[in-house]
Every structure is written in structure tokens, then in C-alpha cells.
TrEMBL record:
Protein name: MexH family multidrug efflux RND transporter periplasmic adaptor subunit
Family matches, as Pfam families: Beta-barrel_RND_2
CusB-like beta-barrel domain span: 200-274
Coiled coil: none
GO terms assigned for molecular function: efflux transmembrane transporter activity
Listed transmembrane segments: none
Matches recorded under SUPFAM superfamilies: HlyD-like secretion proteins
Length: 371
């Protein structure tokens, strides 16, 4: 009886011991599997940091403006009698463009001219007669005053007649005609726009801190959405004499050649001004920079071997980006491997696997062709 109890207790001990050992082994394997899953290698794309020429620039947005530009109108009302221009035509300064019916005004001018001619004849006759004391000096003085008054009335009426004719105030290109023959025009009605297109201005604003970096005749480069991939060059010709007290910005004007009249007033323009001399700095693609509340950082790859390594977080100091690239002044040395894609899933010490099969080219001036 005792022997049977002993065998039974021993069997139960072996059974429970096996169950305990199996459970312990299972827990150990689960912890190991979870530990392996907690920090698996992350696939990233990288580039090798290298020195490259870097030109510091000031960037701004501006608007194109004609050197001379106006919406032409007449200061008197009337009916359109003649139109001497075509839409989009280039005209010279002083060229007649449009005339209003001026029959009554011309008739009145002719009447006043006849009166002035009559006063001139009377004055000439009295000047001959005064030599023989046939007329008094008072009569002669009255004749002179009458002639001057008549001539003044003639000049006044000539001005009225001239107001019925629109002339180009300067040379340029006309816009689209906005009136028709026989139409009644009120004073001040816009007839057509006239713009002088060569040269052309670009007006833009810079922060007051930039005043030390700009000067008259300094080169500027602009690009416009209408001609993607092209750049137009000019020079700074004016800097405003005051800084806006609200924005603390200063207005700057540059002048550009526009012989082909491709740039038009009112266009939006992106402006760049090169400051200082080109220098050699470490550059990386803009996608390498990770922004957070503590500052800009990048991930470097250490111990890279057979396409695998360890990610290391590094805070950096940068300059303003140019195109797809950015200059790093502190934190990255030439030859270090920098992560440019896949950083969101990394932390300091994460194992990484490098895959550069789909890395796009990062250019400092993408799709830009100098003109």
C-alpha cells in the first residue's frame, strides 16, 4: 500500500514538473519572440554627405510692373467718330488713337479765329493811323487788348478740340479695345490699356535685416509660373527710403530687359538675390531633415556592413534650402551616411536595412534653365 502511494506521488511530481518546465520554456520563447519583434531592422534610403559649392541667396515674391503703364481715357464726353488703332498694336508716343465727334467745337474755333484775325487787322490799321494822330493811344491800347483776348479764346478752344482726340502718351503696346464706333463715352471711360514693356520692373519686399546684403546694381534672378524652367535676370535699381513700420519690410525694385515682351505687368514672380561668395559646405537632400520641437535633426547610419547598420540621431544646424537640397553647417561631416527616407519609423539605436533602389535625384535648382 505504501509502495503504491509512493509511485503515485512520484508520477504526479514528474507530471507537474513537466508541466511547469513546459510553461517556463513557452514563456521564455514568447519573450524572446516579442523581444525580436520589438526592434526589427527598418528599411531606409540613404545618401553619403559630401561638400558642394553653395551660394547663399535671399528669396522673395514680387509683382511685375510696367515702367510706364496706363488705362487710357478722355477727360471729356462724346460720341466715337474714329478709331485709329488695333488691339495689341505697338504704338509710338503721340500717335492718334481715337477721336470724338467735334463738329460744334471746330466751328466755334473757326469763329474765334476769324474774330482774332479781324482784331489783328484793326490793330494794324490803327498802328498806321496813330502816326498821323488819326486815332488816340487809348484806342490803340484797346485794340491790343482785344487781340490778346481773342487769341486767348482761340487757344482755349483749340484745347477743347484737342481733348476730343486721344493720343498715346508714350510708346508701348496696346491692350484690347474696349469701345466701338458710334458709342457714347462718358468722361473717364477706359478706352484701352497701354503698357511700356521693355524694360520692366519687378517690385518685392525684403525684411529689414537684408538691407546690409543688398545694393544698387546688384544682380537678381526671377522665375514666373508662365514660363516654368526659365530664369530672367536683372539688377536692383531702387531701394525704398523707408521701412514699413507695420511689417518691418523694405520695398525693393529691380529692372529687367524684356525685349521679346514675354513678361507682362501684373505677373507673380519669385525673386532670388545672390549674397556673398560661393563656399564649400556639406549638403544633403531636403528630405533628410526631421523637424521637431527641439530643433532639426537627421539620422546617421553607423557600422554599415552588407547593407545593414545602426541609426544614430544627430541634431543639426542648417541654412535656407535651395531646390531639393539644404546646407548643413553643424552635425554632419563629409562621408557620413545620412537617412533620406524612412525616418518616421526610426529612433536612436534602431537597426536599419539600406535600400537605395528608388532614390530620386535631389538638385539645388531643379528644372531650371538660365536665360
Amino acid at each position: 500500500m505504501i509502495k503504491r502511494m509512493t509511485i503515485m506521488l512520484g508520477g504526479m511530481a514528474i507530471l507537474f514538473g513537466g508541466l511547469y518546465g513546459f510553461q517556463t520554456f513557452k514563456d521564455m520563447m514568447i519573450r524572446k519572440a516579442i523581444g525580436g519583434m520589438a526592434n526589427p531592422p527598418q528599411t531606409v534610403s540613404t545618401v553619403v554627405a559630401a561638400n558642394a559649392p553653395w551660394q547663399t541667396t535671399l528669396s522673395a515674391v514680387g509683382s511685375l510692373r510696367a515702367v510706364n503703364g496706363a488705362d487710357l481715357a478722355l477727360q471729356v464726353a462724346g460720341i466715337v467718330q474714329g478709331i485709329q488703332f488695333s488691339s495689341g498694336e505697338s504704338v509710338a508716343a503721340g500717335q492718334p488713337l481715337l477721336s470724338l465727334v467735334a463738329t460744334d467745337d471746330v466751328a466755334k474755333l473757326n469763329s474765334l479765329q476769324a474774330t482774332a484775325e479781324n482784331y489783328a487787322i484793326v490793330l494794324k490799321r490803327d498802328e498806321e493811323q496813330i502816326k498821323f494822330s488819326a486815332v488816340s493811344q487809348a484806342t490803340l491800347d484797346g485794340d491790343k487788348a482785344n487781340l490778346k483776348n481773342a487769341q486767348a479764346l482761340v487757344d482755349q478752344q483749340k484745347a477743347v478740340v484737342e481733348q476730343k482726340t486721344l493720343k498715346a502718351p508714350f510708346a508701348g503696346r496696346l491692350g484690347i479695345r474696349a469701345v466701338d464706333l458710334g458709342q457714347y463715352l462718358s468722361a473717364g471711360t477706359t478706352i484701352v490699356t497701354l503698357q511700356s514693356l521693355d524694360p520692366i520692373y519687378v517690385d518685392f519686399y525684403l525684411p529689414q535685416q537684408a538691407l546690409a546684403s543688398i545694393s544698387i546694381n546688384q544682380d537678381v534672378t526671377i522665375s514666373v509660373d508662365a514660363f516654368p524652367g526659365e530664369r530672367f535676370t536683372g539688377q536692383i535699381t531702387a531701394i525704398n527710403a523707408k521701412v514699413d513700420s507695420t511689417s518691418r519690410n523694405v520695398q525693393v525694385r529691380a529692372t529687367l530687359r524684356n525685349g521679346e515682351a514675354r513678361l507682362l505687368p501684373g505677373m507673380f514672380a519669385k525673386v532670388e538675390i545672390a549674397v556673398g561668395k560661393p563656399e564649400q559646405v556639406v549638403t544633403v537632400p531636403l528630405t533628410a531633415i526631421v523637424n521637431n520641437s527641439y530643433g532639426d535633426l537627421v539620422y546617421l547610419v553607423d557600422n554599415l556592413h552588407d547593407g545593414q547598420g545602426i541609426a544614430r540621431q544627430m541634431f543639426v544646424k542648417t541654412r535656407s534650402p535651395k531646390g531639393d537640397r539644404i546646407a548643413v553647417t553643424e552635425g554632419v561631416s563629409p562621408g557620413e551616411t545620412v537617412v533620406i527616407a524612412g525616418q518616421l519609423k526610426l529612433r536612436n539605436g534602431s537597426p536599419v536595412k539600406v535600400d537605395n533602389s528608388h532614390v530620386p535625384v535631389a538638385e539645388a535648382a531643379p528644372d531650371i534653365v538660365d536665360q
